[in-house]
Structure formats: C-alpha cells, structure tokens
Amino acid sequence: MSTLPLVLRRPVTRRRPRSLSTVALLAMVFGSCAGLSLGTSAVASTDTWTTYRGPIGGGPSAALPETFGLERAWVRALGSGYSPIALADGKAVTMHTAGDDDVLAAYATDDGEQLWQVRLDVKYAGHDSSDDGPLGMPVIGGEPATVYALGPRGQLVAVALSDGAERWRVQLDDGNSTEPFYGYTTTPLLVDDLVVVATGGEGHAVTAFDRADGSMRWRAGDDSVQYQTPIVATLADQRQIVAVADRTVYGLTPETGEELWTLQIAEGARTEGSSHPTPAGDDRLLLDLANESLMLEIRRSGDDLEPVELWRSRAFGRSLVLPVVHEGHVYGFTGNFLTCADAATGEIVWRSRPPRGANLSLVDDHLAVLDPDGELVLIPATPEGYRETARVAALEVGDYASPSYADGRFFVRNLAQIAAIDVRSTELPVSRRADAAGGSDQPALLGAAAALVAELEALPASERPARVDAFIAEHGAGPIVEDDGTVHFTWRGDATDVGLGGDVIGPQRGAEQTMQPVPGTDLFLLSRTLDPQAVYTYAFTVDFGPPQPDPHGEHVLDLGFRQLSELRMPQWPATPHLEPPADDAARGTLDTFRFHSEILDNTRRIQVWTPPGYDRSEDAYPLLVVNRGDEWLEVGQMQHTLDRLVGHSVAPLVAVFVPRAAGREYGGSATADYLRLLTDELLPHLETHYRLTDDRAIMGPSRAGVTSAYALLQRPDVFARAAVQSLVFRDLRDELLAAIRPDAELGPLLVEIREHDDRRQRTGLDAAKESRELADALRAGGHPVEVVELPGPASWSSWRGRSDEILVWLFPPPGS
Fold first, then answer.
1. CA dihedral sign, ordered 48, 51, 57, 62
2. What are the start-end ranges of the H helices in 646-682?
3. Residue 524 in contact with residue 492, Cβ under 8 Å?
4. pLDDT 10s digits, 298-354
5. DSSP string, 115-140
6. SS3 helix, strand, coil % of the chain, rounded to 5?
7. Would you tell me how many other CB atoms lie within 10 Å of the CB of residue 424?
8. For residue 105, what are the contacts with CB-CB under 8 A and spacing of at least 6?
9. Separation CA 624–CA 21 (nearest Å)
10. Around Cβ 298, how many Cβ atoms within 10 Å?
C-alpha cells in the first residue's frame, strides 16, 4: 500500500476563540483503497487525548499548522474490537481481543510496539452483525497516571499507565447494573476523585466509584443504558455531571450524585440508546437521539435548574456517529452523509456524500474521518461547504473507532489494525481530492439506459421529457431487467441527488452509489449486473433523506425498523408460500406466552403454531424449534408458509418460535446454556401443554444456525435433524467439529450456502467457508449432510424465500 502523502493547501480563515473539541465514537463502514502523500518535517505538540471524545474540559485541542499533509508513520496488526484509542506519555491505549480473551493494551506511539497487556475476561463474541471484542474507550488520568477501562463483560479496571500493573477491579453484574444488548459499551468518566460509569438499572442508572480503590461512592437514577457515556460540564454556573440514559437525561452533582434536573426523552418501550450529550457553549447541550438531534439550554430559576428545549432537527440521525460543535455550527452524519447545520436553529447548511465515513473527530478546526477505504480524511469545519485539506491511506478499511490525535500524530484503528499518521508541514500542491458530488462513485450506464441517455443527448431539451415518458411507458417505472442480468434502476422526481443502496450494490453494510441524473429531465438512472437466479434488496435516498422503498417496486421486505424494496430476478423461484392463504382456507393457530428461564435468568415471548384441526383431534405431532423465531414470524412470514403447506407438501407438525434474549446465546458464551433452556426447560413445558411426539427438528439462519447445528451435534437424543442457512461459526468451531465423532449417531443436517454469505477480510470471517468445513467434517465422519449452494446475498429475502423447501426437507409428507 502506498503511503506517499497527499497534501492540500489549507484555507486561511479568520480565527475566533476555539470552543472545546468533541469527538464522535461509533460507526460501521467497509472497503479498501490506497492513498497518496509527500511530506517534510513532522509537527510536534505536547497535547494528549485521554478522555472520551477528546480533550473535552481539558482546554482547546492542539493546533494544526496552516498548511499540512499526512503521511503514515507505521501500521501494526491488532485484535478485533471497536475501542477508540487514548493517548498519553508516549502510549496508545486501547482494548481488543487477543486469542480467546479480551485485553486492555498499550502500544508505543513512536513505533507501534506493544508495551503491556492486561487480560479483562473471555472474549466477547460478536452477534447481530457486530464483531468480537470490546467497545468502550479507556481513559487516562491521575498521578501516577492510571488507565481506567470497562470491558464488554462488565470488568471495570484500573491499571498503571507505565506498565499495566493492576490497581483494582470491580465486576458489574445484575446486582449493580444492566448489561446492554452488545455488552458494556460506556466509557468511564473521571471527575475529581471519582470514576463515573453509566451502569443502568433501578437506583443505579449512574454509579460513581472511588478512583483509589474502586469502592462504590454513590448511585443515582432509575433507567437502563446502552452506549451512552456521561460528561462533566459547567451549565448555568453549576458544575455537574450530565448523563443520558435510554429514556432520561440527568444533571447530577459530582460530589453526591444528587439530581439537579432531569428530562424525559423517550416513553414506553422506545429508547434513545444512541443519544449522548455534547457541550455546545452558552449553557447548551446537544443530544444526539436515534433519528434527530435536540438542543437544550440549562437555565437557573432561583435555586433550581431546568432544561429548556431550543430546537429539534433531523439534520442528524440514522447514524451511530456523534455530532461535534464548532464555532456556531454542528457537524455530523445523517446516514452516510456528512452534514453541517446551524447550531442556533438546527437548519441544514450543507450535506456531502464524501467522505462516506461513519466516525468523526474534531481536531483544531478540522473534522477527521476514517473513510470506508481506510483513508484518513481531514475536512475544514466550515459552513462554506465540503472540501478536503488532506487524505492518506491509513488502514485497509475504515471502521467504528474515531481518530485520536496527540503529539503531531493521528491514531486510527479497525478490527484488525492500528496505525499512526504524521501531520507534516508542507507547501506542496493538491494531488488528489474527492468532490462533494462523489463523481467517482458513479458507475457507467449500460444497455438500454446508456442507449436512452445517448438518444436524449441528441434531442433538444424541450423534447427530452416526452422521450423519458415514452421510455418509462415502454419498460415500466420499476427496475428494468435485461436478459443478461443487467438491471436499470430508475427514479423520477424533483431532486438534486439520488442514491441507490442495499445489497444490489454489494454485501457491505451501508453500501450505496450515486444515481446519474439525466440532464434536462427528472430521471435518475443506475445500471447494475446481477445474478438472474438471486433475490436482492434496495432503497433510494433522495436529497440525503432516509432510505425509502421504490414506490414502483413490486415487492417489499418489511424489517420492522425500515422497509426495503425486494428485487426478484427472473430465475428466482416463485414464492407463493410467503403470501397469506385464501380467505376460505384452513389456518393454524398461533399461541403466545411469556417464558422465564431459570438457567439463563431471562424471560422471552414464546409463540407456538398448531396446525388446522389440532383442537379437534387427539393426535400427537412432531415439533419444529425455530430460532430467531420472532423474526421468522414478522419478517420471514413463516406463519403464512405453515398455513399454506402443512398438511399438503409438509407433514403435520407443531412449531415453536423462540426469540433470542441475548446475543451470546447464538454462537457465543451462552450457547450451551441456551441449549439447556430448550432441552431442560422449554421442551418439558411444551410437552405438558401440547401433544407432541419424540420427533424434533431445529432450524435457524446465520448465528442462529450455529446454535441449531450445535443442538443437533450435542443433543442427537433430542433433535433428529436440523437446517441452517448462511451459518457463521463464531467461537464454537472447535466444539462443533469435536462433536462430529464416527461413533456418534447424528441426524441429517441441511446446510444452505449463499454466494455472498458474510465475509470480512478484516477478521478472516468467511461464512461460506465455515459451512463447507462443517459439511466436510460430517461427511468424513460418515454422517448425513446435504449442502445446497445458492446465488446472491445472505438476507431475509433469500432465507424466507427458501422456507418452503426447508420445511419439506425437515418434514416431508408421509409416503414421499
């Protein structure tokens, strides 16, 4: 990879007094590319980056030179994790996996060599599209300098910055906190002699620990938390801790945790897990909610403080990136789009497709973003519009953690690497930049679309709209599919920018391309070559708005939190089983009940489908256990499939739909206990309340497929067969393969592999490879296995499209 520095002349602007710098933490982006750069002397500084989101409360961030370029100093391999990097005393401190463990580790800032490593606990396994490892950021403070960190399993530790010697350790658990869905993610806050943590729960939404020994000093608040981190700020002349929980914002006294003010920001089951407070100057706080931003002002009324809402704006949202505030403007992301808004009103000033990043830091008066291609991009924080000062190849791909900066160097990381980037003084000219239109993002038009554009270019402008009308009347307003698999996506309307996203663009999450506007018309076009036998999903983003399904699309995939259009290519098999049965057709019954597990100490909503006529007979039925059961019913439309097929092409059965209560139940540390829940708790309960035979099967996609295969291999006495789709081993590889013994009597396993099953170069994950490895091991052991290779992406569209075939394979009708 080239590391020649790219240099752009920085604009000279009138300097105002700097506001405090802020930094955004999380995002998810993918890709790979290299950048260019040339440099001279390194810029030295003495600042540090020791707190969450940078030097908040510690003075202004270090100044960048008026003209500069970037050059990669070093890059090193690193374990998986999302933890941002803290910097002090020549050490870069972060958390990541190391073998089977999660660790806190320090690296020398000058060359990247590891200096020390502290084990936190057994590795936290990724789930629900997340990857392995820790998420929160270590923080550094005190004399002697101490690192404070919270691991994903709740290990709050304090270690010496000099050598990693452990000073104390506290375990967060159900008695003093609530574990978020993706593990403990919050970053500790250092205030005076306290370590303050968003712990969550009744009476302890926020907990303060003694920095010297980890003893609990005070607790406050009644609310759950997810990813929020408290801050300390002086508002209305009152120094206070501001902590955001899922439904409530608290202003607390640092000394005792006494509530100074509270504000409810969500009701009922709705939470604002992505929200976080950002100081905005003049006693104001910016809260980044799930789909909008809220600006508050804390005002004094006598002896009381009260939060007053100034504005709400949808300028920011649909992103894990936290906005930053600089000189009267807010900068952040709306989906994948970098956005500038007026801090006084929340009104949008400009938006840009590049740099397509999903992380953000503010350093001096520049925005720092690690883009999906792994390039570090520096952008002036100015309302004048998007332009780049410098960019350089830093890592193979970008990721969640935002850049950190100290001593003239940026530090970035992803799930597999860490790198240092030097800021170099230079007067060299521009060598490369990306423009706000994202021109390089536009692929060439093909086939009928290219022919149409060529024809329109030869017509007078006045005749072009009528020709477009005729073209749409001939081909239809939805996607136009040619015989060779070329698909032309069309969008018409009053817009300046339209993007096409979804797995039609690629398997990367958040993948999107700019559609080409046809001059003189309201038509936007984009051509893609897709597999004629596959099914895909797509959505449009119009003028940087939220993704929306195609108003002219024939099929919609409803994921609950959003809708996507579904493109069924010509050779994709018809799926009538996903449609409701006829009004006069017999239907099964769906029962619902709450079930508490003593083994896992959690409660979930169980649904049981019984076939038509069940209540009028005394027959016993085989049982199908469906993992990710709630999604199979809501997204996979499996009740329609059962209603249509059972008693016809599928033998009569009872199906139990089991949702997951925690991600680690699927391929993680709780998989064995989850299996015990099924075999020792749920099945006996079902046998008591339903007429069942001893014939049982189990199924699930992706990580739920791991649990399904695990159940078949570990308890062949309970489960006679299993079906898995797009299987991902995660941490159970050795245990699964060890269970495949020649003397074991294992039932048959159906393994569905898709061409674009989950594959991540950063971490070595290759779901298709893992599925084949499992199938090969079963064959070598003499056990029955059937492998079905399918085209296209791993998605609910593809999984549910095969549910009829899976049911026929698991429960063929008698005599078949």
1. positive
2. 671-676
3. yes
4. 999 999 999 999 999 988 887 888 899 999 999 999 888 999 999 999 999 999 988
5. EEEEEEEEPPPP-TT--SS--S--EE
6. 15, 35, 50
7. 24
8. 93, 94, 95, 96, 98, 114, 116, 117, 118, 164
9. 55
10. 23
